[in-house]
Amino acid sequence: MTEKCGVVGVSLDGRDAARPLYYALYALQHRGQESAGIVTHDGFQQHSHVEMGLVGDAFGEGDLDELTGAAGIGHVRYPTAGSVDSSCAQPFSVSFKSGSLGLSHNGNLVNADEIRDELAAAGHAFTSDGDTEVITHDLARNLLEEDLVRAVKHTMGRIHGSYSLTITHDDTVLGVRDPQGNRPLCIGELEDGYILASESAAIDTLDGELVRDVRPGELVVLQEDGQGFDSYQLVENENTAHCFFEHVYFARPDSVIDDTLVYEARRNLGRKLWEESGVETDVVMPVPDSGRAFASGYADAAGETTADGEARDADDDGVEFAEGLMKNRYVGRTFIMPTQDERERAVRLKLNPIKSTIEGKTVTVIDDSIVRGTTSTQLVQLLKDCGAEAVHVRIGAPAIVAPCYMGIDMATREELIASDKSVGEIRDEIAADSLAYLSTDAVADVLGKERIDLCLGCVTGEYPYDIEGEETDRDVSRPDVGGQQLPADD
Ligand code: SF4
Question: How far is the CA of 407 from the centre of ligand 1 (A)?
Answer without folding.
Answer: 8
